[in-house]
Amino acid sequence: MEIHVDPDKCCGYGDCVLAAPDVFDLGDDGVAFVISGAEPSLELAQEAADACPVAAIEITP
Ligand code: SF4
After folding, report:
1. Do the beta carbons of residue 40 and residue 16 sit within 8 Å?
2. Spatial separation of the C-alpha atoms in residues 25 and 44, rounded to whole Å
3. How many angstroms separate the CA atoms of 50 and 10, rounded?
4. Which positions ≥6 away from 9 have C-beta within 8 Å?
5. In this structure, which residue's CA is closest to atom 2 in ligand 1?
6. Quick check: CB of 33 below 6 Å from ligand 1?
7. Smallest Cα–Cα separation from 30: which of 9, 49, 1?
8. Which end of the chain has fewer CB within 10 Å, C or N?
9. Ligand 1 pocket check for 54: Cβ under 6 Å
């Protein structure tokens, strides 16, 4: 599974970080990124993607 945050869409609301704090973090630039080595379940990744108000998280199963 691959998880990608589109930096052009991300507005830094942090909902993904709240939904999956072991998977996503916010960079100094206010854009979310996937924490290196994170291997969440598809369910958790999808939950975080669904929490994003601008649909910036793409999941490739
Ligand atoms: S929820 Fe979406 S807009 Fe908010 S920080 Fe995460 S990826 Fe960015």
Report:
1. no
2. 15
3. 13
4. 54, 55, 56
5. 52
6. no
7. 9
8. C
9. yes
Quote the tokens at residue 26.
């916010």
> Is the distance from CB of 43 to CB of 20 less than 8 angstroms?
no
Q: What would the pLDDT profile of 11-28 be if each residue is shown by its tens digit?
A: 999 999 999 999 999 999
Tokens of 28: 């100094």
Is residue 23 within 8 Å of 34, Cβ to Cβ?
yes
- For residue 9, give its domain range: 2-60
Q: Tell me the two tokens of residue 36.
A: 């290196």
The reported pTM is 0.94
Say if CB 35 and CB 24 are below 8 A apart: yes
Provide the token pair at 17: 């970080």
Q: How far is the CA of 12 from the centre of ligand 1 (A)?
A: 5
